[in-house]
Structures are given as C-alpha cells and as structure tokens.
Design brief:
The complex is a heterodimer of chains A (about 220) and B (about 300). Chain A has about 220 residues and is an alpha/beta fold. Helices cover about 30% and strands about 20% of the residues of chain A. Chain A has a domain of about 140 residues: Rossmann fold. The longest helix of chain A is centred in the first third of the chain and has 13 residues. Classes of the chains: A alpha/beta (about 220), B alpha/beta (about 300). At the A-B interface, helix 8 of A face helix 5 and helix 6 of B.
Chain lengths: ~220, ~300
C-alpha cells in the first residue's frame, strides 16, 4: 500500500491562495486505507476550505486515481462542476496527481505528501513515477514530477544539457523540464516557472517511528 | 582576519565599466600543480579573472578549490566553479566558507553535468541542490546564516556568477533559459558567463531578449578557441547548445595555419559582440599560450 500523509493545512491553504473555485478529488484506494482520502477526508477538507471562503464546486472519489482510464470514464458525470472550477485539489499519492493533471487538463494541487511505497502499489499501470519524497510540488510543475522526470532532480527549471528536447544523460530520453514547460504552457500556467522552489527536506522521506509501529507500515504483521 | 580586506578584481573591473576578460583553467588528472602554475604564469596580469572548472564533464581531477587557492597565491583572481553534482548542502556550504577564508571572492554556481557522461559513471549523482538553490544558499551565508538557520561567527561575501545558454535549440529550452536566468538573478547572481557562442547574430537576439528583462546584470560572452574543423564538427554533434556555423568550419578546413585562423575567428567574433556585452569568457582548452596574442590583437592587453 502507498502511504500518504496530509500536507499541513496551512500549506494547502497557502498553495490555493489564488484559487477561488475548487473541485476536490480523492483516490478511493490507498489513501482511503491510510485515512488521508475517502469521504471523511474530503468532508474535512471541504469544511476547512469553505472556512477560507473557497467555493467547492464538487467532490468525487475514484478508485484508483493512478489509473487514467478509470479517471476518464468516472469523471464524465462531473464534467460540468469541473469546468466551473479554477483548480482541482487531489487527495492521492503523487501518481494520482500526475495522472489527474494529464487527464483533466487542469492544474491539480496535491493535498498529500507521499511517504513510501510498501507492498502493492494501487492499480498503477501508467507511465507516471512517484519518488515518495514527502515534498510534493506537482502544482508548480503541471503534474509532471521533476524528481522522477529529471535525472538531476532539478526543481527550478531545466539545465543546459538538453538537446532537441532530449536529456543529456540519454539521447532517447525526453528532457523532463521540456515536458513540464510544454504542459504548463498548455495549461496557461507558465508563470509558475518563475516560482523559486527551495531544496527538498529529506527528513520528510523518512517514515516516522509511529508510522512504522502501525499496521499501515507492514500489512502482513500483527500490530495493533 | 586579513581575508576580509580582499576584494574581487573581476567585480572591480565590471564596476569601472571595463570590457573584462576571463579565462579558464581545467585542473589536471593527477597530484601535481605544475601545469596549473605554467598556465597561470601565461595569464597573469592579462585577464580579470580565471575560472577553475569543478570536475569538468564529470571527470575526476584535481579540485577546483585547491587550484583556485594556487591562483590566488600567484596573484590572479580565481573564479571558483561550484557544481551541485558531487556535494550535498553540508559540503557545499563548508566549501564556500573554506573558499572565503582562502581569499577566493568569485563563485560561479552551476548545476553540473550528469555523472554518466564522465569517467566515473558508477558514482552517485548528488544534486541535493540545484544551481538556483545554490545561489540562494550563498545569499543566506552572506546574511550570516547557514541553511539550518544557524548563525555564522563571520559571514562571507562573494561576487556571484551563473551560466546561461544563449544557443538553447528548442523554443521551450530557450524560453526556460531566460526564465532560469531571471530566477538566478532573483537569488543573487551578479554576473553571467554564457555557453560558447559562434554565431554573433544569434547572440544579439539573445541579448535583445535579456535587455527587455531590464536586469542590468553584466554578461560575459563565452568564446571557445576553435582548434580544428574536426573539433567544430564534434561540438556540433555532441555539445548541447553549441553550434559552429558552416562558414567557420570551412575556414578551419581550408587553412594551413590553424592557430592563426583560430585567433582570427575568435577576434572577429569578440569584436562583433563587444558593443552588446560586458566582457568575454575565453575557453582556450589547452591553447592558453595563444591568449596573449589574441588579446594583443584586440587591444585588450
């Protein structure tokens, strides 16, 4: 199971400060099991955001958000409220945020940080990769992960090593930042490229002692 | 603390409005300093600063910090190239403090090439910080704090540079270079050295775009001394962002005297870009002995 934890509420609110109408999308897979997604988590988030004056245009649970074909078929009933939204807040691991951005063609904000990939990884069959870094910044990069799409894990734009859109490490590999630039341009969000992103906090990659003691950490173990 | 009185010679030159010249030294693969000292003797008194590469092309060599120290001792003004490939934030900050104590005042902050293009492809690529975050880190140190927010007993002060590639070959890559340049300036970059240029018109278009950003940050155009037509073809094929036009390749093909033609091409290019930039960064790549003639021909020495 992929373990996620909710970003500090203050961070979620700060990230959404320029967005008025928000659609909340949750994965019904791993986050539901980890209590970071599902109906209760959506409701809590909805209440908190409404307190901040946000309009929640709609909510939806899809199992599993890492499956682009599932998102495509399930979201059809919500297209109207999705269209009315400025942004989507996604309660899922990094894979779900990446898949959602690509399918919905709308800026998706991660509400959770992905901590670790343990055991089975949802229903994930796609090309998305999540590093479980605990520092999700997918809203700045158009739903393309800079840690996994760029071998140098660059956070503030591509390097000068790219050539014709390909990476310096492998001429057959796409430059991750070229993909990010094109995605942000398509989403009309190029100004996000100017945002300075500070170094990631490696402590957030480490699972806490509390987490390691729970059943969520090792489903096959007899722990209360 | 005698080191506090040392100032950047490069900064002084730029502040005075001088058309500055920097050159570059690539440390040798071995525990020796003879080659470095010989090259330094050639460049001494001729250039405003000398870059020292940091394990260029991910090839293991003598270090940039030690080499900068040698140059400083010999009376040159070193530019300490710092990449993010080999050190995490602890080591980077520590090396920056070390550089300051050794009297090194110029830093060139770079991301660094990936490990797999060099001679130790098995090595772990670190990239704990990127080049923009490295500049942000230097700014913090200059404010008297490290990245953990702990106060420094004495704060360093540097003249901070960065790199930009005017020849990025796709529309997105070119735009990204400009965006990243802006981010570097926002985080404290005070001068830029560009990737090698061969096409003055292309460089002019780049400068036009930069001048719209209204930054006022000086730009030093990168000039590679072209040794042969073979080298030009190699760079066109393998060095991202570097493009040698066919007309220049032809000149090198047809000449009997490669060195003279090389200096002629470089001088023509420098004269063309001189009115639109603040200086040049000459990468002689082993032909440092020809730099004095080049500068004399240009009335820059």
């Amino acid at each position: 199971m992929i373990l996620t934890e909710q970003k500090p509420l203050s961070e979620v609110i700060e990230n959404l400060k320029d967005e008025k109408k928000i659609f909340i999308l949750s994965c019904g897979g791993c986050p539901e099991g980890a209590d970071t997604g599902g109906a209760v988590a959506i409701n809590n988030m909805k209440k908190e955001l409404e307190k901040e004056g946000k309009i929640i245009t709609g909510t939806m649970i899809i199992d599993f958000l890492c499956q682009k074909s599932l998102i495509r078929s399930r979201i059809r009933t919500k297209l109207k409220s999705l269209e009315d939204s400025n942004a989507v807040l996604v309660l899922s691991c990094g894979l779900g945020v990446q898949a959602s951005t690509e399918v919905l063609n709308k800026i998706c904000y991660p509400a959770l940080n992905t901590k670790t990939f343990g055991g089975i990884t949802g229903m994930w069959q796609g090309s998305e990769r999540c590093d479980a870094c605990g520092n999700c910044v997918l809203e700045y990069t158009g739903g393309i992960c800079p840690y996994t799409a760029c071998p140098k894990k660059l956070l503030n734009g591509g390097c000068a090593g790219q050539s014709n859109g390909k990476c310096e490490t492998d001429p057959e590999r796409d430059c991750g930042w070229e993909l990010i630039y094109k995605r942000l341009k398509k989403l009309g969000q190029l100004d996000r490229m100017y945002k300075f992103i500070p170094p990631r906090d490696y402590q957030k990659m480490l699972p806490s002692a509390e987490l390691r003691k729970t059943k969520l950490w090792a489903l096959d173990e007899e722990v209360v | 603390m005698i080191t506090k009185t040392i100032e950047s010679n490069l900064k002084k030159g730029l502040d005075e409005g001088k058309f500055v010249v920097t050159c570059e030294i690539g440390p040798p693969k071995g525990a020796e300093d003879e080659e470095v000292r010989n090259t330094a003797e050639i460049l001494k008194g001729l250039v405003d600063g000398v870059n020292v590469t940091d394990l260029q092309s991910s090839v293991m060599r003598l270090g940039s910090l030690a080499t900068c120290h040698i140059l400083k001792d010999m009376g040159l003004d070193p530019i300490f190239q710092v990449t993010c490939r080999d050190r995490n934030r602890l080591a980077l900050q520590s090396d920056l403090l070390s550089a300051y104590v050794l009297g090194i005042r110029n830093i060139l902050a770079l991301t660094g090439d990936f490990t797999n293009i060099g001679d130790h492809p098995q090595a772990e690529p670190v990239f704990d910080l990127d080049s923009v975050q490295l500049l942000w880190t230097i700014k913090k140190l200059e404010q008297g704090y490290d990245l953990a927010g702990k106060e420094l007993t004495v704060k360093p002060s540097f003249f901070k540079g960065a790199v930009v590639n005017p020849g990025a070959d796709t529309e997105s890559a070119f735009e990204m270079q400009l965006i990243k340049m802006k981010k570097k300036i926002d985080q404290g970059a005070q001068f830029f050295q560009t990737q090698a240029i061969f096409d003055a018109d292309l460089f002019e278009k780049f400068i036009e775009r930069v001048s719209k950003m209204n930054t006022g940050v000086p730009i030093l155009a990168g000039i590679i001394l072209l040794k042969s037509d073979k080298m030009a073809k190699y760079m066109n094929k393998f060095v991202p962002g570097v493009f040698v036009p066919e007309s220049i390749i032809k000149k090198m093909e047809e000449t009997e005297d490669k060195a003279s033609m090389c200096l002629e091409i470089a001088a023509e290019l420098i004269n063309k870009v001189k009115p639109i930039c603040s200086g040049v960064h000459i990468q002689a790549l082993g032909w440092e002995r020809h730099v004095p003639t080049l500068l004399k021909n240009l009335n820059l020495a």
